[in-house]
Design brief:
The radius of gyration is 18 Å and the shape is globular. It has one domain. The chain is built from twelve helices and no strands. It has 280 residues and is mainly α. Helices cover 50% and strands 0% of the residues. Keywords: Signal. It comes from Populus trichocarpa (Western balsam poplar).
């Protein structure tokens, strides 16, 4: 409740919760707001498909075909080898993502699911880039609960100020905090792994440190008092924000938001993402 209340205070009024309600379609939404509200559909599709396939073995086309809007099915997604506790949590994440998709589509028409690459190879490339070497055997997000939780942290819930209402953003933070809490007891190897994941995301974002680590020096922890960093925040313990351009560079795994790849082989959709592809 406290987190949601603080987030409401920090989200600009023009992007606050009235944009997403059951009656949203009855009121016109300004084009600038529509573009920002439409953009996260790309991430919602990505997360929904990853969590659905990982926990239940099938995706939107099975559980909510009306939400995929006949977009191409994701590449390489499959059921993960999860322990019962982790599987239950990932199923919860999956249903939450369906709710997020419905909420956004209640406010605007949106676009069909873009082509997503959720194959082990796609995740392995991000891990190899993070560690600076090829892992052997290659990283597989579907191989175990631990691998799946690491992958759940990699799929960016990266905050974009104003692009989501406070309620959705609070749930995103809770999902990532759960993944990090479950990773924390595994010790230094996992913390080093997640730290390495954060490094390339900061570099690709081109905007300094906005993705911080599971274990940090005290000067980067809350109030300079603690080295644990679950959940992460800035010097005021407030969620970091990212622009659409930063997010595109991260999910494309590329220094330029105009060059597609990574989790989106043919690029993200929506006016903002397409505006950059025009400059290729």
């Amino acid at each position: 409740i406290v987190l949601a209340s603080l987030t409401l205070l920090l989200v600009p009024a023009s992007y606050s919760s009235p944009l997403i309600t059951e009656k949203s379609r009855d009121s016109p939404v300004p084009q600038s707001d529509t573009d920002l509200l439409e953009f996260p559909l790309n991430l919602e599709y990505l997360e929904a498909e990853f969590f659905l396939y990982g926990s239940l073995g099938q995706g939107l086309d099975k559980f909510a075909p009306n939400l995929s809007t006949r977009g191409p099915p994701p590449l390489g997604a499959r059921v993960a080898n999860l322990d019962p506790f982790t599987r239950d949590a990932i199923i919860q994440f999956a249903w939450q993502e369906l709710g997020h998709l419905r909420a956004i589509k209640n406010a605007l028409q949106g676009f069909p699911r873009p082509l997503l690459d959720l194959s082990p190879k796609s995740f392995a490339l991000t891990k190899d880039a993070a560690l600076g070497r090829a892992l052997s055997p290659p990283f597989d997000p579907y191989a175990s609960s631990l691998h799946n939780l690491i992958a759940s942290h990699v799929i960016p819930y990266v905050g974009l100020a104003g692009y989501l209402v406070a309620g959705l953003l609070a749930v995103k933070g809770g999902q990532d905090a759960y993944a990090l809490t479950r990773l924390h007891p595994y010790g230094i190897a996992v913390s080093e792994f997640t730290n390495r994941i954060s490094d390339p995301r900061n570099k690709l974002g081109h905007e300094g440190i906005k993705d911080v680590y599971l274990v940090v020096p005290k000067k980067l922890g809350a109030e300079d008092q603690i080295g644990g960093n679950v959940p992460a925040g800035n010097e005021y313990s407030v969620e970091y924000t990212r622009t659409p351009e930063e997010i595109l560079r991260i999910v494309y795994c590329c220094r330029y938001e105009s060059i597609t790849g990574g989790f989106y082989p043919k690029g993200a959709d929506g006016r903002i993402a397409k505006s950059h592809l025009q400059h290729c």
